[in-house]
């Protein structure tokens, strides 16, 4: 579904991605793991079209989207779940949910979103930034599901969440996957990653240094944890 | 008491002009991050356009009230496409140079054709005379301005808070770099929003024509206070710009009425208020601190 070939990216003079190639098949959940500064978030931003300095190929369903502006990529089915949760303070919860136009074959109706997230229903007329961190994370995920995105790009969705909320995020990703949604995930929490993902890419200093099946990550969990410095 | 009410009413009427101009500046800044120093020149063009339409083509006030905002809105959109959009990637200094340069060009074009003397513009006959409020009379035309400006502000507020277009504008104003990731073509809204802000300035200009002296520098005199208003309300805050517009109108009118024996105070009171507000709330009364980039 998503194919990245020889992708390089820069922040000014500094190169942060070096010839990254990877692919994600339809229906897969794939994580990007690596230390801080390995280039994981930049990679996601390149896929979404939010990083200006890049070179290489980004293909969605065989179509080169590397030159398309971010809004066109979103309309092709990319769902952006940013690391700061992307809540709009000047929009109500309901407006945050309905801001993106619906795309793709299977957008969640608003009623279904509210059924799955009663807290969002209860607070639908409040400013989104008055929600708790966990609720804002749910809002960010619910927003792209309501939009009907086929490929979710999630940047550390569990960061700063309590174990209970981390499990809820996991359940939600499982459910999305059951409905055929594909997920590319940046994740520091290796335990969470192995619970939801099929495959993993290990990034270091802007390169993909290893591609691993989930079973391999499980068996090497201790070694990887110490490598990641967690 | 009567005098106080009259001063208050006069303050609200000047506040109406500040509010309309500041509102236009606020929507433009919110969407484009451009401070439009040429806003006063478009206000002047609104008034001058109405004057030229009437004196050279016999077009009445009511028609000018529609024609000038529309025409200037289109001119604004053309300017946005031609030059203003180039500012997005440049140092903010260019923002000042471009919009201030536009001001000088527009002012001098009008000056070279019509000179610097003020031209009279007759109050439309339907709005001449005065309204009896019991305690005092007030010119009908000023009552009209106040009502009309409040109506426009409410309509803009309604559009921004209750419609999908307004939601998109709010989202793009708050998070310009994030919003495209949700499938919103922010660029498509930039030109119309700029044109709309300019149209509001033109509208204020037409409204001013029968009340104030129409001359090429009328915008330059007013815009300094309008910028104080925008800073007090909070740059980019829609509600703040309108509230501060009316508030400053009142402060100025009361200052002129009750502090007239201290001209130095009554003439600078707006800027004193601005300085105090900035010391107390650096982002303005209703502004939000810009998130660090």
UniProtKB/TrEMBL annotation, chain A:
Q: Does the keyword ATP-binding apply?
A: yes
User: Do the record's keywords include Amino-acid biosynthesis?
Assistant: no
Q: Which residues form the signal peptide?
A: none
Q: Which residues form the ABC transporter domain?
A: 2-230
Q: Could you provide one GO biological process annotation from this protein's UniProt record?
A: L-amino acid transport
Give the matching InterPro entries.
AAA+_ATPase, ABC_transporter-like_ATP-bd, ABC_transporter-like_CS, BCAA_Transport_ATP-bd_LivF, P-loop_NTPase
Q: Which domain of life is it from?
A: Bacteria
Q: What keywords are annotated for this sequence in UniProt? A: Amino-acid transport, ATP-binding, Nucleotide-binding, Transport
Under the heading PROSITE patterns, the entry gives: ABC_TRANSPORTER_1 (PS00211), ABC_TRANSPORTER_2 (PS50893)
GO MF, one annotated term: ATP hydrolysis activity
Q: Which residues cross the membrane?
A: none
Q: Which SUPFAM superfamilies match?
A: P-loop containing nucleoside triphosphate hydrolases (SSF52540)
Tell me which family the UniProt entry assigns to this protein.
Belongs to the ABC transporter superfamily.
Indicate what this protein is called per its UniProt record: ABC transporter ATP-binding protein
Q: Look up and give the organism this protein is from.
A: Micromonospora musae
Taxonomy of the source species: Bacteria, Bacillati, Actinomycetota, Actinomycetes, Micromonosporales
UniProtKB/TrEMBL annotation, chain B:
According to its UniProt record, which protein family does this protein belong to? Belongs to the binding-protein-dependent transport system permease family. LivHM subfamily.
What keyword terms does UniProt attach to this protein?
Amino-acid transport, Cell membrane, Membrane, Transmembrane, Transmembrane helix, Transport
InterPro entries for the chain: ABC_transp_permease, BCAA_transport_permease
Record GO terms (molecular function): transmembrane transporter activity
Q: Topology relative to the membrane, per the entry?
A: Multi-pass membrane protein
Q: Say which species the protein is native to.
A: Micromonospora musae
Q: Where is it localised?
A: Cell membrane
Protein name as it appears in the record: Branched-chain amino acid ABC transporter permease
User: What Pfam families has UniProt attached to this entry?
Assistant: BPD_transp_2
């Amino acid at each position: 579904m998503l194919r990245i070939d020889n992708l390089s990216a820069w922040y000014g003079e500094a190169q942060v991605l070096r010839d990254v190639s990877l692919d994600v098949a339809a229906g897969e959940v794939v994580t990007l793991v690596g230390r801080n500064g390995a280039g994981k978030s930049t990679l996601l931003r390149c896929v979404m079209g939010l990083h200006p300095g890049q070179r290489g190929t980004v293909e969605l369903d065989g179509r080169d989207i590397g030159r398309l502006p971010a809004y066109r990529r979103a309309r092709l089915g990319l769902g952006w779940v940013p690391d700061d949760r992307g809540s709009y303070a000047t929009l109500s919860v309901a407006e945050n949910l309905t801001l993106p136009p619906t795309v793709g074959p299977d957008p969640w109706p608003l009623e279904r979103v509210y059924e799955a997230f009663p807290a969002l229903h209860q607070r639908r007329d409040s400013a989104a930034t008055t929600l708790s961190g966990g609720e804002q994370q749910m809002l960010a995920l619910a927003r792209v599901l309501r939009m009907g995105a086929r490929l979710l790009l999630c940047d550390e969705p569990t960061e700063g969440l309590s174990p209970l909320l981390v499990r809820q995020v996991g359940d939600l990703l499982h459910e999305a996957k059951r409905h055929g949604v594909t997920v590319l995930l940046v994740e520091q929490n290796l335990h969470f990653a192995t619970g939801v993902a099929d495959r993993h890419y290990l990034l270091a200093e802007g390169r993909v240094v290893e591609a691993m099946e989930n079973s391999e990550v499980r068996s090497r969990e201790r070694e990887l944890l110490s490598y990641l410095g967690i | 008491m009567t005098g106080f009410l009259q001063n208050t009413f006069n303050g609200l009427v000047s506040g109406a002009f500040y509010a309309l101009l500041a509102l236009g500046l606020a929507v433009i800044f919110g969407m484009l991050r451009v401070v439009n120093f040429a806003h006063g020149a478009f206000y002047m063009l609104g008034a001058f356009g109405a004057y030229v339409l009437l004196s050279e083509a016999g077009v009445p006030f009511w028609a000018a009230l529609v024609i000038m905002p529309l025409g200037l809105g289109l001119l604004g959109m053309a300017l946005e496409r031609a030059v203003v959009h180039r500012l997005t990637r440049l140092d903010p200094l260019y923002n000042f140079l471009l919009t201030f340069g536009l001001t000088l060009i527009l002012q001098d074009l009008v000056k070279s054709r019509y000179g610097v003397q003020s031209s009279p513009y007759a109050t439309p006959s339907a709005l001449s005379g005065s309204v009896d409020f019991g305690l005092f009379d007030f010119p009908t035309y000023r009552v009209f301005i106040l009502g009309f400006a409040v109506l426009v502000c409410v309509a803009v507020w309604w559009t921004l808070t209750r419609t999908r277009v307004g939601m998109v504008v709010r989202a793009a104003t708050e998070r310009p770099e994030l919003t495209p990731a949700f499938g919103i073509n922010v660029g498509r809204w930039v030109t119309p929003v700029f044109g709309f802000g300019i149209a509001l300035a033109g509208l204020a200009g037409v409204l001013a024509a029968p009340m104030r002296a129409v001359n090429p520098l009328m915008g330059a005199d007013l815009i300094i206070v309008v910028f104080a208003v925008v800073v007090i309300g909070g740059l980019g805050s829609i509600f703040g710009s309108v509230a501060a517009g009316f508030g400053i109108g009142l402060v100025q009118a009361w200052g002129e009425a009750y502090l007239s024996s201290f001209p130095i105070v009554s003439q600078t009171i707006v800027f004193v208020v601005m300085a105090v507000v900035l010391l107390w709330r650096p982002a303005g009364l209703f502004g939000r601190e810009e998130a660090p980039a």
